Amino acid sequence: MCIARILGERADEMVERMVSESGKPKTVALGELDTAIRTFEYYAGAALDLEGSAVSERMPNAMGLVLHEPVGVAGLITPWNFPILNPVVKIAPALAVGCTIVTKPSHLCCGPTLLLA
Fold this sequence. Notes:
Blueprint: H1 3-9, H2 11-22, H3 26-48, E1 53-55, E2 64-66, E3 73-77, H4 85-96, E4 100-104, H5 111-116
Parallel strand pairs: 3-4
Antiparallel strand pairs: 1-2
Helix pairs in contact: 1-3, 2-3, 3-4
């Protein structure tokens, strides 16, 4: 199941956690969650466009390949002020290219990131 869809289904729980931990107004938390959902949708679509290509501009008798491969682990340390959007704008592109993620949310507002995990 798509992460964006799961976030949409659990929106109430996520918004309540953001409101209680960060003190955001509910409308601001809803806007942040909506942006996070759209970010996941964007990168899920962008991942479909990743493909390798052959390049032989400089040497016509040779072929060079361009491959898109994960480069490793993405380590994320995120602040408290946008408790779902800050991690998502880093997690979504990393997942789209196949990287593993290790994240350390702020101790002041870690609930939304834990729900996301």
